[in-house]
Prior knowledge:
Strand order of the largest sheet: 1-2-3-4
Mean pLDDT: 74
Helix content: 55-70%
Low-confidence stretches: 1-53
Number of helices: 12
Strand content: 5-15%
Structural class: alpha+beta
Largest sheet: 4 strands, antiparallel
Amino acid sequence: xxxxxxxxxxxxxxxxxxxxxxxxxxxxxxxxxxxxxxxxxxxxxxxxxxxxxxxxxxxxxxxxxxxxxxxxxxxxxxxxxxxxxxxxxxxxxxxxxxxxxxxxxxxxxxxxxxxxxxxxxxxxxxxxxxxxxxxxxxxxxxxxxxxxxxxxxxxxxxxxxxxxxxxxxxxxxxxxxxxxxxxxxxxxxxxxxxxxxxxxxxxxxxxxxxxxxxxxxxxxxxxxxxxxxxxxxxxxxxxxxxxxxxxxxxxxxx
Length: 254
């Protein structure tokens, strides 16, 4: 449903979130509350909605909301923002005309300043489980918005597995994480970050290939072998989920 016009391209950027495998409730244009976890980050109920009565075009307001989401997540999780920095820069370049209009809109800038000051006054999440949940939300949001094209959508569970192993062999954390579902990405991020590039390369050599798998609608299951500490091979189950938006398959557990 993407249109060839600039307006259509901007709208397409926003609507990525509505069906992304992160399953985050996101409404384009007004950008009302993004669930309690994002409200706790600082994007509270008055934030985006407060800007709805400013003289700003609907698509422009949606783009502005995305900037605020990025900046809010970057405030609490600068590491995530650093990872998507190249993609975010490319996104800003694609939307430079909109951002230029917003920069010149004094009324909007005044409202945005109020929102940013409110975010700065908000307390960063401190509780460990809560912070981990919020990090996963931000991870999913930033990935869906800016990094959806980091890797082609795997056309089969086997392609998803092969893509993960290739990324691990290259020691590429970002590409490896792109092969997981939004819910799984946070869990495996911790593991892969602990391993580091050399550890990921070493682990990639321990896993065998997927030769067959079983699918049930949007779910798939397969078994892979891995060399254990005792140098023996053991079988492990891997589950996959299909993203209905792209048709691509992503690893949910392994």
